[in-house]
Write a structure and sequence with these properties.
The complex is a heterodimer of chains A (119) and B (148). Chain A is α+β, with helices and mostly antiparallel strands and 119 residues long. Chain A is 39% helix and 22% strand. The chains are: A alpha+beta (119), B mainly alpha (148).
Chain lengths: 119, 148
């Protein structure tokens, strides 16, 4: 369900549309500052992100996965340059956060009793 | 004839999975370009591409290589967000069908019913996609709990 995070889902989707608009219709140059949020998955050891491999993990430490929400800023009048990592993070967010949450809200609105069965 | 109703399914549960698969395709294409560029074999790959007896010949492949990851990243995002918008179109069309029902404009046999429903749904999806007044922000606002 979108409750709680619904504003975040809506606002993030709107940010993505603004980014698309700048890329598609304004030659990659935003008219105003764009702030775009992404969800990024990271491997962590005791809450410290692994940023390079190989990485030594000692006995007693805990390996985990953390999904963090981060922002990317694009200045007005400055050409947007997306890196492959930027694109990955944007697509990851649409694929794994925005679309499933919107789908869940859609299913629940159609059939509130089905909420427990939605993915 | 008019009183017979067959079994009709409108399975929307795979729409999410389909869209995710399409996005995976966008990421896979991005990965191909990124890895080729990192391994410095992007230009060689260009030279290796053949269509039958025709070979792709591009001027200054090294310049293309320099910009390739950024170009691929941009294309990846735009392609993926296009799929995301199409996904919203489908859900909105489904909302409309749930609300309005499916009007039957001709006699249908039970065998025809499923095809009719499928075609009707595809028409509604296309209509949503083409509706100019339904901007992308308005599409997001179509979902429960969202601001209109």
């Amino acid at each position: 369900m979108l409750s709680g995070g619904k504003a975040m889902i809506r606002d993030t989707a709107l940010e993505y549309f603004e980014l698309r608009r700048a890329l598609e219709h304004h030659q990659d140059v935003p008219e105003k500052e764009l702030v775009v949020h992404v969800h990024r998955m990271a491997l962590v050891v005791d809450d410290v992100e692994i940023t390079a491999l190989p990485y030594n993990i000692n006995k007693g430490q805990t390996l985990g996965v953390r999904i963090s929400r981060e922002e990317r800023r694009y200045s007005p009048g400055v050409k947007i340059s997306l890196s492959p990592k930027d694109a990955h993070d944007l697509v990851f967010t649409m694929r794994n956060v925005l679309a499933p949450e919107i789908f869940r809200a859609h299913i629940e609105a159609d059939n509130p009793s089905a909420s427990a069965a939605t993915p | 004839m008019g009183s017979l109703v067959g079994n009709v399914t409108m399975d929307i549960t795979n729409w999410l999975g389909q869209m995710q698969q399409e996005m995976d395709g966008c990421l896979a294409d991005l990965a191909q370009v990124s890895v080729a560029s990192e391994r410095k074999n992007y230009a060689d790959n260009l030279a290796a591409l053949q269509f039958g007896v025709t070979r792709l010949i591009l001027e200054h492949p090294e310049r293309l290589e320099a910009q390739a990851p950024e170009r691929a990243a941009r294309a990846c995002f735009l392609s993926a967000i296009g799929k995301f918008i199409s996904f919203l179109d489908r859900l909105i069309a489904s909302q409309m069908v749930s609300k309005d029902g499916i009007s039957i404009n001709r006699n249908l046999s039970i065998d025809d019913l499923q095809n009719y429903v499928n075609e009707y749904m595809e028409e509604r999806i296309a209509k949503v996609a083409k509706e100019k007044s339904l901007t992308n922000p308005k599409k997001v606002a179509c979902f429960p709990g969202e601001r209109r």
